[in-house]
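Entry: Foldase protein PrsA
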Amino acid sequence: MKKIAIAAITATSVLALSACSSGDNDVIAKTDAGNVTKGELYTNMKKTAGASVLTQLVQEKVLAKKYKVTDKEIDTKLKEYKTQLGDQYSSLKQQYGEDYLKDQVKYELLAQKAAKDNIKVTDSDTKEYYDGLKGKIRASHILVADKKTADEVEKKLKKGEKFETLAKEYSTDSSKDNGGDLGWFDKKSMDETFSKAAFGLKVGQVSDPVKTKFGYHIIKKTEERGKYDDMKKELKEEVLKQKLNDNSAVQAAIQKVMKKADVKVEDKDLKDTFNTSTSSESK
């Protein structure tokens, strides 16, 4: 899935192409050697980024006709990125502007909806994923640097504050973006001390602070493999989430929607844009 931090790389190209769509003789820059016009800028930008920009613009129009994205959904996703990217988000916003970031997020959300509508998870997919969970548990943790902070977090947990909220506030590793969720893991994939503590918990139980070479962990065991029929619905959602993170699968889903759209490129220099993208996606 195209993420906002990556999408912003093409921002200059998008803005330049859209700005140069009319008034070809308007002057962009003046020099003693001659002027640079909108038409010249457009021609050069088209050569370097025309196909990729046109692809996104057309895909967004086609997807927006079939799927709807609300302002609330866009704002929610922007808040997620703001939390995840921190200073990088502020830099992107300052460099490209909030409207551009909203456009990129809208495109991402449209692509996600197209993917959810077209990506299928079979019983075979779900069973294969279930079989792979043998010997694994699922847990979350809050990782902090010192015992004093760990004790502070522990007190808040005992007062009833939510584990996920405290993980986002205190934890020092990337799992904090997901409320401390570490996913499924076996004993060998984690620090020995951490694994011993995590596997010794009951589902829903929270550990005392556990010291490892990484710092102090407060661990919550969230799940263990049960009967397949009991877990099937949840596992199907997890498999779908994994497929939605697979860019090739998402692009294939978008192509299904695009094939039904009557796209005709009038610009002779870009006329093969969608023939090329379609053929490359199918390889």
